[in-house]
Design brief:
The complex is a heterodimer. Chain A is mainly beta. Chain A is built from no helices and 10 strands. In chain A, strand 4 and strand 5 form a beta hairpin. Chain A is globular, with a radius of gyration of 13 Å. In chain A, 33% of the residues are buried. In chain B, the strands form 2 sheets. In chain B, strands 2, 4, 5, 9, 10 and 11 form a 6-stranded mixed β-sheet that branches. Chain B has a 5-stranded antiparallel β-sheet with strand order 1-3-8-7-6, with no helix packed on it. By secondary structure, chain B is an all-beta fold. Chain B is 0% helix and 54% strand. Chain B is built from no helices and 11 strands. Chain B is globular. The chains are: A mainly beta, B mainly beta. Chains A and B meet through strand 5 and strand 9 of A and strand 4, strand 5 and strand 10 of B.
Chain lengths: 114, 113
């Protein structure tokens, strides 16, 4: 079956522009996570969706970052007025549900802000 | 403040020998730990996990050891193979959210043929 997919795989944008990153989780997975990995660093938690519960947004670094999820399917991460420090790989992961800790990751979107 | 630490950014091991990747954590309330492997240009993939009620879990060439008193865990790969060359992330179940996992910064393993 299909794994987690993300698009685009690469995105180059100018500073100040808005970008939208997309994640398609594995069908049936109710939990969805977004992470950021800056060059040479580990995975930084951004936001977590579980079913119809209010998302855990505790990792979003600023109000320029937002994310939405349509039901238990597609999620989009939006970064407004991008800055150079937003350059990173943005990873999406999904899992079967609450307290199912094994996450399945997508290949990531590499964002470069020039 | 980093709650999950992997103090060795990189490690090189000869093929056939043992690879030992270390991870330290600061929060004694963590109750579940996982290791993920990541190849370049791919997302991390789950490798092995351990509950805090155990001190060892084994899966083929991979064994994870947990020392709760020292807040330390390690991943052993025996024998190491060139295909094991990847970045390895240690992760722990967070306490602020039962569903959230906190990742360490990763250790890059190179297995030399």
């Amino acid at each position: 079956g299909a794994g987690v997919s993300q698009s685009p795989s690469n995105k180059v944008t100018e500073k100040g522009k808005d970008v939208e990153l997309r994640c398609d989780p594995i069908s049936g997975h109710t939990a969805l996570y977004w992470y950021r990995q800056r060059l040479g660093q580990g995975l930084e938690f951004l936001i977590y969706f579980q079913g119809n519960s209010a998302p855990d947004k505790s990792g979003l670094p600023s109000d320029r970052f937002s994310a939405e999820r349509t039901g238990e399917s597609v999620s989009t991460l939006t970064i407004q007025r991008t800055q150079q420090e937003d350059s990173a790989v943005y990873l999406c992961a999904s899992s079967l549900g609450r307290a199912i800790l094994q996450q399945y990751f997508g290949p990531g979107t590499r964002l470069t802000v020039t | 403040d980093q709650q999950v630490k992997q103090n060795s950014p990189s490690l090189s091991v000869q093929e056939g020998r043992i690879s030992i990747l270390n991870c330290d954590y600061t929060n004694s309330m963590f109750d579940y730990f996982l290791w993920y492997k990541k190849y370049p240009a791919e997302g991390p993939t789950f490798l092995i996990s351990i509950s805090s009620i155990k001190d060892k879990n084994e899966d083929g060439r991979f064994t994870v050891f947990l020392n709760k008193s020292a807040k330390h865990l390690s991943l052993h790969i025996v024998p190491s193979q060139p295909g094991d060359s990847a970045v390895y992330f240690c992760a722990a179940r967070g306490t602020t959210s039962y569903d959230k996992v906190i990742f360490g910064p990763g250790t890059s393993l190179s297995v030399i043929p």
